[in-house]
Design a protein that fits this description.
Layout (H helix, E strand, L loop, with lengths): L8 H23 L2 H11 L2 E19 L2 E20 L2 E22 L2 E6 L8 E9 L2 E8 L2 E3 L11 E3 L11 H7 L2 E4 L4 E3 L9 E10 L7 E17 L8
Antiparallel strand pairs: 1-2, 1-12, 2-3, 3-4, 5-6, 6-10, 7-8, 9-11, 11-12
Length: 247
């Protein structure tokens, strides 16, 4: 090994500094990589939203064919509790709990002038389904259905159900044909369940009420079906990981 005696301690200090600087230049970009920055932002802004939806429905229906027919009237509500989560620019709804309360559900059967009233509160149980949340022009829309029910309840006059009772539907994306058909029957109000993206990031509770009236848009004069609907949606922004216990 040959050492140049003309190079003193200052030379070696400078070499060490250059080596350290080189290592820093290698490590620093890795620390500021998009992946690491995104991780820090996610941990600092890990939001989800607690959602409560209550759908209240009041309606009636009737079918008359010569001397035989049936009529029904009902009042019920469906409550849903769940959460909304962000997923790469989209929003996902997760249902945690649902309950149906029926205040009234009566059916009256008519046969040649004879009338028979049946209480069906414990028979029918409408179920709601939040299909998904979609975004249009900075707004979040809940795509929500209450499943159809076949009527009337089986009896000696009607051993099988013969009609589908149309229950409420919220608006959907334009290509959803069955929702487009439903919308034609809305006579007042709007079934668009919408929130703005900006408001859900506020620290206060968001509460919106929606209502509409609907009537069967059918060429069959024997069958009538109508209802009126109110929907209440409450949204609260939360932070941290969500679980069913936290909701």
């Amino acid at each position: 090994m040959i050492i140049n005696s003309n190079k003193g301690p200052q030379y070696f200090n400078t070499s060490v500094k250059r080596a350290l600087l080189f290592l820093l230049l290698l490590i620093f970009p890795l620390a500021l990589s998009p992946y690491n920055i995104a991780q820090e932002e996610d941990s600092a802004q890990l939001y989800w939203w607690r959602v409560t939806i209550k759908i209240t429905v009041s309606g009636d229906y009737s079918y008359n064919n010569d001397k035989t027919g049936f009529q029904g009237d009902y009042d019920f509500s469906v409550s849903i509790v769940g959460s909304i989560h962000q997923d790469e620019g989209d929003y996902i709804f997760v249902e945690v709990w649902q309950e149906t309360d029926i205040d009234k559900w009566n059916e009256t059967f008519t046969n040649d002038g004879n009338i028979n009233l049946t209480d069906l509160k414990k028979i029918y149980k409408p179920e709601a389904l939040v299909n998904y949340i979609f975004i249009q022009r900075g707004k979040l829309f809940f795509d929500l259905d209450i499943k159809e029910i076949r009527v009337p309840h089986k009896s000696s006059l009607f051993p099988e159900s013969i009609k589908k009772l149309q229950n409420p539907l919220s608006s959907g994306e334009s290509f959803t044909s069955y929702k487009t058909r439903y919308a034609r029957g809305i006579v007042s109000g709007s079934n668009k369940l919408e929130l703005t993206q900006s408001e859900i990031f506020s620290n206060r509770e968001i509460k919106h009420d929606y209502s509409w009236k609907w009537e069967q848009n059918d060429t069959n004069p024997l069958w009538q079906n109508r209802h009126q609907v109110t929907v209440e949606i409450k949204v609260n922004r939360e932070s941290g990981a969500s679980t069913s216990n936290s909701i």
